[in-house]
Design a protein that fits this description.
alpha/beta; 18% strand; Preph/Arog_dehydrog
């Protein structure tokens, strides 16, 4: 079964490389699609306004435009549509409304493409043979797929993405420039995390922050710790323990 990947960025290229099927890629920037096709064996580029029909359409587009992309490419999806946008409630509802008679799955690879394989969250809203085959391809490639709900996923992203990124970027903005010899195991780990987060593009992280709550909780917790004295700090410390 062939597949159209809409969006030839990092995640679009990853899924195009990973699945074991004929793949076409498209992008709002034709040059981006052509470059992606030129670097992945067996992948071809098609225009963004293609009228071809594919067994599966996979939306690898920014969070802010995924609902629009569902509507735009619904007619290209012969059997199924999925997305790897990183948010689930909106895409699941949009696909359910627009493609009620076709298979629908929302996927979120919880890693940068350079760190694949890894965990992939799955909301199987209307699974079937086409999306089962797609998930099998991802599993064969070494990924661990686990099922969730759109609500559980989006709530989890408030912690594992929005809050985590806020904490790491806040540390980077607050940290003074000190000699490397002063690094502790904790600060060195944080420095590595800063490098990992800032090695991406601001747009991707901005959309995560704008989509999911979590940043304010980090700000409130930081102020609580900064203001804590005596037993109040001890309480914060004990509360922060994973086994509390």
């Amino acid at each position: 079964m062939d597949m159209l990947v809409v969006g030839a960025g990092e995640m679009g290229r990853w899924i195009a490389r990973t699945v074991d099927r004929p793949v076409a890629v498209t992008d709002v920037d034709p040059a981006v699609a052509e470059r992606a096709a030129g670097t992945i064996d067996g992948v071809r580029a098609v225009p963004a306004d293609t009228d071809e029909t594919f067994a599966v359409v996979c939306l690898a587009v920014p969070i802010s435009v995924v609902d629009e992309a569902v509507d735009r490419y619904a007619e290209n999806a012969g059997r199924a549509m999925c997305d790897v946008s990183g948010v689930m409630t909106g895409p699941v509802e949009a696909m359910r409304a627009t493609l009620p008679d076709r298979e629908r799955v929302s996927l979120h690879p919880l890693f940068a493409a350079t760190n694949a394989p890894g965990n992939v969250a799955v909301v199987a809203d209307a699974p079937g043979p086409a999306t089962d085959a797609l998930r099998a391809d991802l599993t064969v490639a070494g990924n661990h797929l686990f099922e969730t709900t759109a609500a559980e996923h989006d709530t989890a992203m408030e912690t594992v993405q929005a809050a985590a990124h806020t904490a790491i970027l806040a540390y980077a903005l607050a940290a003074a420039d000190v000699r490397e010899e002063f690094a502790t195991p904790v600060s060195a780990t944080l420095d590595d995390l800063v490098a990992a987060v800032t090695g991406g593009t601001p747009r991707v992280y901005r959309e995560i922050q704008e989509t999911f709550a979590g940043a304010e909780r980090i700000a409130e917790a930081a102020r609580r710790i900064a203001d804590a004295e005596g037993e109040a700090f001890d309480d914060c410390y004990r509360e922060a323990r994973p086994d509390r």
